[in-house]
Design a protein that fits this description.
The chain is built from 1 helix and 14 strands; from the N terminus they run H-E-E-E-E-E-E-E-E-E-E-E-E-E-E. By secondary structure, it is mainly beta. The protein has a single domain, classed as Beta Barrel (Outer membrane phospholipase (ompla), Chain C). The protein has a 12-stranded antiparallel barrel. It has a two-stranded antiparallel ribbon with strand order 2-3. 28% of the residues are buried.
Length: 229
């Protein structure tokens, strides 16, 4: 269940890496030492390939979580599509949907183990790029509100320090609500005008004990390579 902020970051990277093209494609391959989504750990180390296609204000993509211990944790493949709207005063509106599938549980694309989540959100062109999103999973009957902010600091010509924070509230029908949070810092190096490699340190959790080992929070690491066409 990829964080939508990361999906949007991939779209933004696609646009920035291929500004001269209305049609852009971004490919990404990442590894992280833990899979933590909305404060809940879903797997230990995993690989995360993804492809994002943007045309004008439309975007769509596929993202996967492939646990290294594939026999222990579920493989996940997510499909998403959305549309952005540029409003006045630097405000951008974003509307879309994500379909979460788990082929290691059931290969049927329309399996009852899968779920469909709609989202609407907005971001502001301002220092730290604040954004806020509302998600509703119609199959799991959950509502999630998430706020995020981040900034990129140029250290050298091709090297930047990227800092992102996020927090949210999940309302689960019939089983209670909880708050979650996280922070990520990454060193990003521009290999070419269309390729970036990054190394990140992440920390996150929730008010509930949703991390392996009955913990509330966890530190984990990541590596990624992003290329735009």
């Amino acid at each position: 269940m990829k964080k939508i902020i990361a999906l949007l970051a991939a779209t933004a990277a696609s646009v920035s890496l291929t500004q001269a093209q209305e049609l852009s494609v971004t490919t990404d391959i990442a590894w992280e030492s833990a899979y933590v989504f909305r404060g809940e750990q879903l797997a230990r180390s995993y690989f995360a390939p993804g492809v994002d296609v943007a045309y004008g204000d439309f975007y769509a993509g596929i993202w996967a979580a492939l646990p290294v211990s594939s026999g222990t944790f579920d493989t996940e493949v997510d499909y998403y599509v959305g549309h952005t709207f540029a409003l006045e005063n630097g405000i951008e509106l974003d509307i879309g949907a994500t379909y979460y599938t788990f082929p290691s549980i059931d290969t049927d694309f329309f399996s009852s183990d899968n779920s469909l989540e709609f989202y609407i959100g907005g971001s502001l062109e301002a220092p730290f790029s604040p954004s806020a999103y509302l998600f509703h999973d119609i199959d799991l009957d959950t509502f999630t509100f998430e706020f995020a902010a981040g900034e990129s600091f140029l250290l050298e010509e091709d090297l930047s320090l990227d800092v992102d924070i996020y927090g949210g509230h999940v309302a689960v029908s019939g089983s209670g609500n909880y708050l979650y949070y996280g922070v990520s810092t990454a060193l990003s190096y521009t290999l070419t005008p269309a390729a970036v490699v990054s190394a990140s340190v992440n920390y996150g959790g929730s008010e509930n004990r949703l991390i392996f080992g009955d913990k509330r929070a966890k530190l984990w690491f990541g590596l990624s390579v992003t290329a735009g066409f």
